[in-house]
Amino acid sequence: MNAMEQQRNAVADAAEAFAKQKLEHDLSGHDWWHVQRVSKMAERLAMEEGADVVLCRIAALLHDVADEKLNESKEAGLAKVSAWLQEQPLAAKEQQHIMEIISTMSYAAGKNPPMRSLEGQVVQDADRLDAIGAIAIARTFLYAGWKGHLIHDPAMPIRESMTLEQYREEKSTAINHFYEKLLKLKDKLNTNAAKRIGEERHRYMERYLEQFMHEWEGER
Ligand code: ADP
Ligand code: NI
Q1: pLDDT digits (tens, 9 = 90+) for 51-73
Q2: At 200, which CATH number?
Q3: What's the complex ipTM?
Q4: How far is the centre of ligand 2, averaged over its atoms, from the C-alpha of 92 (Å)?
Q5: Which residue of 177, 179, 202, 208 sits with most ligand 1 atoms within 8 Å of its CB, as the best mutation to test the pocket?
Q6: Handedness of CA 113, 137, 81, 19 (dihedral sign)
């Protein structure tokens, strides 16, 4: 490893400590373990896709520090991350690339254009994969509890799409969240490496929902 690579790796280690400190006590589904999973998945996808592994790792580690659920506003969150990055020995171009990735990767923003760089695609896929599958099911119920939502409400029509306003208000149930977001994610994955993983996780969620509905009706 040359000196330059060593320095970039040191920034990634510092990003890990920074994110850990910020997200350790989160109960909204953005806890440190989510970030750890996304960061490991981003590394794995980056290797398979030939993306810049260290840059993907740094962006993944920082991606939720700026989340608007955890800050006064998205802008305030991004400013916090940007201030931290500026203190790091990292080329300005790389800092900008990381800021671009974390400010445009969220799903709720909806109108974000497709990720411009392979690194952005990889980190976005890693975050989305953590919202598909067995762990995603757990995160969804954790989040619903945090919000004070019901598990399921058959009187509420399933809403497959929500306006940004509705999304912000978060009038939903955990089960509805599968239809408004989780089941759509596999078709929004960018890279082939992520699509392969997403397919299997998607099928698992479909089986889960089928069993859930049978149990709800007392049939199984
Ligand atoms: P991230 O920023 O990690 O992509 P989000 O902020 O959208 O994810 O959500 C964090 C976790 O909480 C995800 O697993 C997501 O599916 C879940 N979640 C988000 N909104 C809702 C909701 N309205 N009801 C239930 N779960 C939700
Ligand atoms: Ni995330």
Answers
A1: 999 999 999 999 999 887 778 88
A2: 1.10.3210.50
A3: 0.93
A4: 24
A5: 177
A6: negative
Structural domain that includes position 120: 3-216
Phi and psi based region of residue 50 (left: phi greater than 0; alpha: psi -120 to 50; beta: remaining) = left
- Residue 89 structure tokens: 């020995």
> What are the tens digits of pLDDT across the range 73-126?
889 999 999 999 999 999 999 999 999 999 998 766 556 788 999 999 999 999
Token pair 């149990």 is found at: 215
Q: Tell how far the Cα of 139 is from the centroid of ligand 1, in angstroms.
A: 7
Number of domains in the chain: 1
Given a cut of 80, whether residue 169 has pLDDT beyond it is no
Q: What is the pLDDT of residues 71-88, one digit of tens each?
A: 888 899 999 999 999 999
Nearest CA to ligand 1 atom 11: 29
Q: Hey, what are 214's tokens?
A: 């049978």
Q: pTM value?
A: 0.92
Closest CA to 56 of 151, 10, 121, 107: 121
